[in-house]
Amino acid sequence: MKNKLTALAGIKTKLLLAAEGLLLVMMIAGAIWGKTGMMYSWPSMEQAETEALRLSRGTYRLGLQYEYAGESFNPGSVEILVEEGGYRSVFTNGIPIYAGTTENSLEFTVAAKEAVVRIAAEREETLRFTAVELVRTKGAYLKGICFVLFFSLVVDLLVLAKSYQDKFGLSDKVRAVCIVIPFVTALASFPSLTDYQIMGADMIFHLMRVEALKHAILSGELHVRMQSLWLAGHGYANSFFYGDTLLFFPAALRVLGFTADFSFRVFILMINLLTACIAYYSFAKMFADHRIGLLACVLYTLAPYRIYNCYNRSAMGEFAAMSFLPLLIYGFYRIYMSDAKEKNYRWSFLIPVIGFSGVIQSHMLSCEMAGIFTVILCLILWKKTFRKEVFIQLFCVVVGTVLINLWYIVPCLDLMSADAYYFAHNANVYIQDRGVYLWQIFYTLQAAGSSSRYPETGFTDAEPINMGIAILAGVTVLVVCLCRHRKREQAERVRYAGIAVLLLLLLALGMSTSVFPWNFLSAHGLNKLIGPIQFPTRFTGIVSVLGVTAGCIGLYMLDVYKREMLFGIAAVSVLFALYQTNDIAQVSDGLIKIYDGNGLGTTAILGAEYLPEGADVNHMTWHAPVASGEVSFFDYVKDGLQVEASVQTGREGFIDFPMLYYKGYSAYCIDSGEKLVVGPGENYDVRVLLPAGFQGKVHVGYTGMWYWRIAELVSVLTGVGLALLYFRDLSGLRKPDTRLKKKTEK
Known about the structure:
alpha+beta; five-stranded antiparallel sheet; 26 helices; Jelly Rolls
């Protein structure tokens, strides 16, 4: 391998790398010494608009300081008006001004060589700006570095592939993989390759998650996972119940200066690429055939319900979780169908562990649904389940998944059991009417649609909640193969796998419809388990991955392997996906452009599922602490979810600080180190109880629980330990066995 790489490093390659390195050095130099800093400043802003400002290409931050003593929650707003520059010359949105705050900022980008803009304010008379500053930031240089690195990587890979092809030749398999995966990713990402954002039902919530994580990164709040940006600085426990691991990627793009909608669209592209790669890897390994792997890559990445989740719903957590479902299929196939005598069989459990971990960190409901079907699979294959080797692997799947994710599971369960939240109200919701009609299983038109409330609107403008014609064709192939199957010893285990998958598929299909007895089950003691599902159509994600698996098994079982059938089904999938993505990009309502996350507000919490009962969202404004009778405070400073104030008391009393109470807040006296009692106060603000005659400086903050740190340590040690053992074992398997040779020499 080393000799091949040396052979590829010709003079042209070296010149290309040198040019890329020089360009990167120039961008880094620009970031260090480039033109940044104060451009304009005003001691006040009495007029509705400033004078015209001529700005060159770059990124800017408008800093605002103001005073307001009125009663309106939103007494004004500020925006950038573009006078000269043309379309897409300036990327900007307005931002609101909130009562109770004294400063805000607006970030915008000048994309044209030059643009003329004005700063405009709409406000109440009592809102007075005390300082306005326009600063040129380094964001343009940081974005430039990212673009140089990205395109250099793409060009280098293309040049490397071309050189390798010329000198050594690429196999048909490698060429096919290198063409199909990028093509499928691009097709699935087509609605993201626009200059606008499609307004999915959950989009603002997920954009807010990214903004909150970005704010936490810049504020150093990562260790507690309670971001302070939510609910007017009160904080929200979203990250405890809804994993944010994959969101670090778009949050990092926001930190580097990329716009909010660009970061979101790049995240969709990244997930599409991840889905295509995982689907190919899982099914190619499962069937030991790259052609079936590529077919599965096409069918699953372009599955109508997955595309629908990406754009119609903007269900960031759910479509991210769907990326990892093929790993569960492949992992359990290995556990149940592989020869237990193989040396690497002992590590079969790692694949489902990775799959479940990805699902857990993306979408807990998807993990619950995948867990239900895993249990059902174990019951269907009960004879194999209780074989020693298989049972050990299944046990390792459970233990490994729990230990790897203990850092997330322990705080989640701890907070869930510590208080009552609004998501518990979903337990009393009867969900059967939210399922699809039975005949929608065979629905093939993948239009964008906008309605899923079938009891209210019928099938008018229906959303594409179905498996799609291509996957349905693959399932049909399996059914035909099972009906005409002639017993062959080498294909018998695949036949049993096909029957098991078909049974699970039929169950998942039934559970997604309005004919499944969800209401009956809810009325007979299972409402707490069923209600949180909210929409039976969520099971269409399980339907999609099982349908792809069924189709691949069917093609594998054909007596004469017909490549044209594989290509035909893939072509159908591509054609219908072209229609669906074009329809979404051009027909969907609610096309918006969001550049600065400050314009999103702070209350985009959907159904307020993680809000403690007793808390009122209307109370979540920027406000001062509230003290009881003989308690006074001064020198009050709030930084995120950390508060300091000097306090004096006559009688015992309390102070309610403007932070939403969750288990994990603590308070102490800075002067004496004395710990103070913390609990929920009025409207669930953080209440600190103070003894009589108290005098000193108090610190209040969210620190979490000490045993959460132990859970984090266990997860790290488990991950590192498994990785070391696996690669050690793998290297041992690769070493040639020289014992026989030595014995012969003797």
